[in-house]
Amino acid sequence: RAVVEGQRDVIDQQRRAAEAQRAALDVQLEIARRMFDRTQRLFGQQAATSVQLDQAERDVKVLERQIEAQRNQVDALERQADTQTRQLAALDAQRATVDRQVSAVDAQAAQVDDRMHKAQIVNPAPGTVLVQYARTGEVVQPGQPLYKVASLEAVDVRAYVTEPQLA
Predict the structure, then answer these.
(1) What whole-number distance in Å separates Cα of residue 62 and Cα of residue 42?
(2) In a structure prediction context, what are the per-residue pLDDT tens digits for the chain, which is 167 residues long?
(3) Helix/strand/coil (H, E, C) string of the chain?
């Protein structure tokens, strides 16, 4: 964006310089037209030569063509500046698109993080695995038990003993 803005600024400066040059040519043309008119009057009074009249006419025509060329250059520079402005608008649109894409990717990453968090297997209580119902890599349904855990810190034993065995 900064490069395109810099290019547009350069084009604007060139356009202003071309307009100033065209203004200077306009002044020169005005002077040349007065000189041509004066030379025509003098030629009519036979006080100027045809070469002087031709030279004055040539000066007017050359300046008119230079002004036209300068006008074309200014127009071309204005078109370039417009193109640069459109490029800046396109860059802004691209930036907005990229920002939306980044937001979408961030949302997807958050979803993946949430799924990973939900997919973690956490033992509900400390203990020892007594029975394993599923193996590593197997697919199970939500809520299906994976293993049976028992805490061995406090063991309650229920035993039926006959009276002779009690001793």
Answers:
(1) 22
(2) 777 778 878 888 888 888 899 899 999 999 999 999 999 999 899 988 999 999 999 999 999 999 999 989 888 888 888 888 888 888 889 999 999 999 999 999 999 999 888 878 888 778 888 899 888 888 888 888 888 888 878 778 888 888 888 77
(3) CHHHHHHHHHHHHHHHHHHHHHHHHHHHHHHHHHHHHHHHHHHHCCCCCHHHHHHHHHHHHHHHHHHHHHHHHHHHHHHHHHHHHHHHHHHHHHHHHHHHHHHHHHHHHHHHHHHHHHHCCCCCCCCEEEEECCCCCCCCCCCCCCEEEECCCCCCCCCCCCHHHHC
49: amino acid identity, one letter? T
Residue with tokens 């417009």: 82
To 10 degrees, what angle do helices 50-119 and 2-44 make?
Answer: 170
